[in-house]
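queue> holo job accepted (tetrahydrodeoxyuridine)
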Amino acid sequence: MDKRQLVEAALAARGNAYAPYSHFQVGAALLAEDGTVYTGCNVENASYGAAICAERTALVKAVSQGARRFTALAVVGSREGQAVEETPPCGICRQVMAEFCGPSFRIFLASSPDQIVEYTLGQLLPEAFSGEALAERK
Ligand code: THU
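queue> job finished
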């Protein structure tokens, strides 16, 4: 699975986006260490705050199926009917990624399978808050 294929999986997942309120459709594809790809789309709600982003859909699907270790994520998004563009993950999604992925986790933002900009989670969420901060001190 190369990054181009991961972007293609994200594009396909975007086709299932449920975004009747924002009309902004997002697809994500998450690559687990064992090679499995978990896809996600955004799923909105009439109670707007109940919407979930594509990235978290993919992560929660993966974790709920027993995966915990991941290497990369591809994201594509755009208003419905428009060509996809680089769509940076929101802050909440970055934080949820940091729960399971280290700073070298790769994030591909694409405007097509041939136009991919690559970041690491460390670049997109430096100084992440983590569970280590919650540990009891002696
Ligand atoms: N959205 C995502 O799915 N991922 C992002 O990284 C940014 C935002 C969704 C949430 C909402 O359904 C719509 O895009 C507009 O914010």
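queue> Residues 19, 22, 24, 26, 42, 44, 51, 53-55, 87, 89-90, 93 surround tetrahydrodeoxyuridine (CB under 6 Å).
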